[in-house]
Amino acid sequence: MPGPRRSITETEQAIRQRLGGLTLQREAMAAVGNIHRAAAAVRSHLENSVLRPHELTWTSFVVLWVLWIWGEAETWSVAEEAGISKGTLTGISRTLESRGLVARSPHPEDRRRVLLSLTPEGEKLMEELFPAFNAEEAFVSASLSPEECLRLADSLRTIVGRLEEHGEQRRRELLAGEDLAPRRSGRRPRP
Amino acid sequence: MPGPRRSITETEQAIRQRLGGLTLQREAMAAVGNIHRAAAAVRSHLENSVLRPHELTWTSFVVLWVLWIWGEAETWSVAEEAGISKGTLTGISRTLESRGLVARSPHPEDRRRVLLSLTPEGEKLMEELFPAFNAEEAFVSASLSPEECLRLADSLRTIVGRLEEHGEQRRRELLAGEDLAPRRSGRRPRP
DNA sequence: CTCTTATCGTTTGGCATCAAATGATCGCCC
DNA sequence: GGGCGATCATTTGATGCCAAACGATAAGAG
């Protein structure tokens, strides 16, 4: 563990000094700033504890989880439920299929679509893994009371819901006047 | 926008059905499950609104932010403050340096270390960009009252603090008996 | 001084991730 | 039933990201 670490409180004091003159939404800044930090910390902890022996990443676990909860489902729906893009899901599900945890089958009525489901081994893994995963969820939030956990979850849901509902329009408004440089990422059109 | 989307509440009903027989920490699950979701949503919104015209990712913005708040700092400290690994910071700071936003200078007393700081252009950018960034932080959390924002931030800080304090020991305990396969990622020892 | 050990930042390998392009297939209209 | 646009999963290219290996330097022991 490296030496002198600045506490979060110290950080916020430094911010206050630096921004003393500016009007700003301090509450919003505190909330948003900590969401990403907490997400990274929790993800790292879970990947390096319960998921590590099974060589699963956070994302591949979430995909298994979605299939466990919802049963057989179409890929676009799994991607949305897991919060990843369809392209990412293609890679993840290929990996999980090669490990025998996930099965892919063609949609009976539409050959463009693909259905994903857990194999029996996948089910077995989740039945064994999920209690351990949940125990770690409990560990990371053990300093909060159940009521605080629910309030936390509720606030986060509110934010997600707001972005799902109004985010796209907001971005359109903000970027209306801009002419954006083409993104670096993404496939190039063939010449 | 794709068609029938399952609401979060529907999801949680399905979970209850699937896990009806298992004892589990539902509050913890709700909290952890939503942290990652909210973080991804917020990050995506900010990258695709205020950060997009400046071609900054979330992470590179955070690095600029840390340097803006703390001034000149050593790389390990910036990495920790930004919540990324040293290796990632190397790439980020190289990019930011090539764009003239960040300067690197050798430590006066130890030639292994490197000091990072904002260039005047970097400073100028942050003075202009931060208010817009903060306005979007306010937008994403506008459905919450200031008190709810503070409570949210506080709960998240509690989780981060707990993991910083007890996470490593917990992982050691959990993995004590396991013999882990070597990780897929990471540099290979030369033969 | 020489040797060893610790500690920097950087490099490297592998996966995750996204968005746009792409090809396959479907639905519809005439 | 032939064609045309919409919609699906996949491919592709670039970047983000981590952890371990690595080279350079510092600090300590004898």
TrEMBL record, chains A, B:
Region: Disordered, residue numbers: 171-191
- Any GO BP: response to stress
Q: Where is the HTH marR-type domain?
A: 28-165
Residue ranges crossing the lipid bilayer per the database entry: none
- The UniProt record lists the keyword Ligase: no
GO MF, one term, reads: DNA binding
Q: What InterPro entries would the database entry show?
A: HTH_MarR-typ (IPR000835), MarR/SlyA-like (IPR039422), Tscrpt_reg_MarR-type_CS (IPR023187), WH-like_DNA-bd_sf (IPR036388), WH_DNA-bd_sf (IPR036390)
Question: Is Ribosomal protein found in the keyword set?
Answer: no
Keywords assigned by UniProt? DNA-binding, Transcription, Transcription regulation
Q: Which Pfam families match?
A: MarR
Instruction: From the Swiss-Prot or TrEMBL record, give the protein name.
Output: MarR family transcriptional regulator
Organism of origin: Streptomyces swartbergensis
